[in-house]
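Just curious. Protein, please.
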Amino acid sequence: MCPLLVPAEELLCACDVPHCSQPNCTGKVCFVSKRKEEGTITQHRGCFSQNILEHCQTPVTEQYGMRCCKSRMCNAELEIFLQGTGAWGRGDELPTWLEMWLGLKIVPVLTQHVQSHLFPSEKGPPRCPQDLLNDDCTTGSGSGLPFLVQRTVARQITLMECVGKGRYGEVWRGVWHGESVAVKIFSSRDEQSWFRETEIYNTVLLRHDNILGFIASDMTSRNSSTQLWLITHYHENGSLYDYLQRTALDVETCLGLASSIICGLVHLHVEIFGTQGKPAIAHRDLKSRNILVKSNRQCCIADLGLAVMHSQGSDYLDIGNNPRVGTKRYMAPEVLSEQIRTDCFESYKKTDIWAYGLVLWEITRRTVVNGIVEEYRPPFFDAVPSDPSFEDMKKVVCVDQQTPVIPNRLFSDSVLSALAKIMKECWYQSPSARLTALRIKKTLKKLNNSVEKPKAEQ
C-alpha cells in the first residue's frame, strides 16, 4: 500500500527563489536570505521541506545572512541586516567577538572528541543497531556534530587541491587538524542540492560504513562571494567511476565492491525505529560517480542531494523541492516514460535497484576472467551518445527495451555468473518484478560465504 503524497507541511511561505513557479511555497520552515556580491545585494524568500531551524541560525556576515521562521507567510516581512547594518540586540547578527569567543572556548575541549568521531578506525568489531541490516557492516561516522562545531570545523579547513569537477561544482581535498577531508563546493545553480543534503545529514542518523561520512555543512565567504560547503570524509581512491578507469579487478574485489554498495543501499532503504532510528531513504541518483572507494576497497554511497524520505508511522513522504533530476543514463524505464508513481515511496526504491544493476554491470566488466577484461565503459555506451538526451535514453530503454550486454566470459565463473543473474533481475521493465536491496544483500552474503569457505578449508 503506497502512501499518499503529503505536502511538506501546511505552512505557507513567500517564495521568489528561481525554482518557485508561484509566489509562495509550502514547507516546514520559511526563510529569507540576503547576499552581497560585487556591491549588489540580492534577497530571496522561500521554504525548506525539513525543519532545520538550527542551520538557519547562521551568524550574519558582511556577505551573507539567513533567517527562518515557523508561521504562515512569516517570511513575507522578515528582514535581514548584513553585518555592519543591523543591531545585535534585535537578533540580526552575532558579533564577531562573541562568535570567536564561543569558538575559542568550545573547540579545544571538543577537538579530541570530534576527531575520534570524524575519523574512526575502519577496523574493529561491528557496532550496529540492527543485526538484520548491519550484521556484516561496521558503522562509521555520520551526522551528529553540534552545529557550532560544524561552522568552526569549516573555518579551520585549508583547501589543498581540486580533486573533481562536475555540473554540481567542485570537490577539494582539504586539511583539518592534520587530517584530510573532502570539501564539496556547490555551484550556485545547485543550491537546492546543498540544502537537501544538509537537511538530511542534520536531521537523520546516517552513521554507516557504506554511506559517506558527514562532517559539517556551512555557508562560507571566500573571495568576496558566498560558497556552499559540504565537508565529508576524504577517500583518496576517488569515485568508483575513477577507480574502474584505472583498475582491473579480481573476482574477490569485485564481490567486495558489489556487496558494500548494496549494504549501503539497504541502510538507506530500510526504516529503523527507535531513538537511534532513521526514516527510509531512496537515493534517486545512484551511479558510479556517486560511489566512493575507500582504502580497504569497500564502497560508500555519496550525494544525497536528490534523496526522498519516508516514515511509516506518519505515512509521510518527503520529496524535497529540488528541481534537479537524476542522471539520464541511469534512469529507470518508468522515469523515462514518466509513468513513475511519484506519490509512492516504493517507486523510488525500485529506481535505485535499476541503477544498482547498471553499477554492477560496470564493475563486472572490469573483472578479469581467464586473463580477459574489457576497458571501462559507461552503461549503454554502445547505444547512446556520450552525453545522452532524455529522448535518447527513452528510445533505448523504453521503446527498444534494451539492457546492457553482459559479456559471455562472466558465465565461466560461478560468482560472476551469479552477479549477472542479479543484474538481469534489477532490469525488469516492471518495477515490482525487480529484486529488493535486502534480497540482493542476502544473496551476495551467501556468495561471499561460498567463496570464503573453500579458502578456510585450504
